[in-house]
Amino acid sequence: MLPYRLKLQALRALQTAFLLRLAVAGHSIDSDLPYWDCWDQKVKDEAKVFHLHTPKVAGCSVVEDLSGMVGRDEVFSDEVCFSYSSKGSYENTVVMVREPRAHVYSMYQFCHLAVDPGYRFMVGMRQGLKGQANYHLASSFSEWINEWYESPRWGNYDIYEDYEFCYCPYNLQSSRLACNSEKDAKYCYATSDFEKVMKNIHSATILGVVEAYHESFCLFSAQLLDSLPEHCDCESPAWSSYVKTNVSHHDHFNGTFGSIYDMPKDIIQKVDSMTQEDRALYKAGVERFIVDINKVEVRFGKKILCESQSQQLKLQAA
User: Fold this and answer.
1) Which of 53, 159, 233, 295 is buried deepest, with most CB atoms within 10 A?
2) For this UniProt entry, which residues form the secretion signal (predicted)?
3) Using 50, 70 and 90 to split pLDDT, how confident is the model at 182?
């Protein structure tokens, strides 16, 4: 029999899925919005592609692009642990990495803006939106980082179980590669099994980088379709014809939320301290990405990653 704690977590996961379906059925959430197709509620263990959907790492855009290549029914994507990929007979496993400073900044903005319809519904049901009884989110990014840095909330829980209804900013990308769960990834700790992180990042058949999304798209195409579009030659005028997929959670937000580099230096240093594993992961990911791109360039006789972009990636990963 399952321990009580695990039973409770399972019941909460079922409740979340039920409430989301109820919201769509009741039109609280528009099921036609592109983001609604970002996650799979049911296991698709015979799909061709497993996509590790790490929050705030271009997941919805990746799902749309992968689906355009192989069909949505052939892509399984959810916010699970990478180990979950072993549950199916997937031909390809896709992982994206993102520069950790920008990643953490994006997490806070997602919760602070609270314009994603699904998030607003789920948090609103828990009275956790601004102006409601259980709203506790820090009023600024700096305050949020200081809170976590001084009093981290370690444990196994998801965004809807967090005191502030927000993400855990400690090494979120690494934790999804290291955790071992039957379904939902609910891990918030200072460190993870980094040896396992490195093993899994190198076992993924396709590794993309958010900061080189165009080039990542070309890598998807080469691996899944054995072909490259005309816009995958960075030395050709056709390169500029590429229109980046941008399935956003901020469909009704017309403003801007700035940059991590607008923050005080000590806050950025704290973010770096909180994401040491993710920074090492990102560096390893960028190094592998460049090698993989070079192989595709040789194979197709096209230049995908031009020198300026390559140098920029190396600089960000340093």
Assistant:
1) 53
2) 1-25
3) low
* Contacts of residue 118, Cβ cutoff 8 Å, sequence gap at least 6: 20, 23, 29, 35, 36
Gap between the terminal Cα atoms of the chain: 48
DSSP 36-102: GGSS-SS--TT-SEEEE--TTSSHHHHHHHHHHHH-GGGEEEESB-GGGGGGS--SEEEEEE--HHH
Q: Calculate the alpha carbon distances from 110 to 51, 69, 118 in Å.
A: 21, 28, 12
- Domains present along the chain, CATH in parentheses: 4-317 (3.40.50)
The type of residue at 106 is S
CB 209 within 8 A of CB 203: no
Contacts 24+ apart (CB under 8 A), 9-13: 9/156, 9/184, 9/186, 12/160, 12/161, 13/183, 13/184
**Residue 247: closest CA among 30, 36, 27, 31:** 36
- Give pLDDT, residue 26: 44
- Supply the pTM of this predicted model: 0.89
For residue range 189-239, what is the model confidence (pLDDT) as tens digits?
A: 999 999 999 999 999 999 999 999 999 999 999 999 999 999 999 999 999
Distance CA 273, CA 64 (A): 33
Residue 211 structure tokens: 């900061």
Which residues touch 124 (CB under 8 Å, ≥6 apart)?
132
Distance CA 286, CA 282 (A): 6
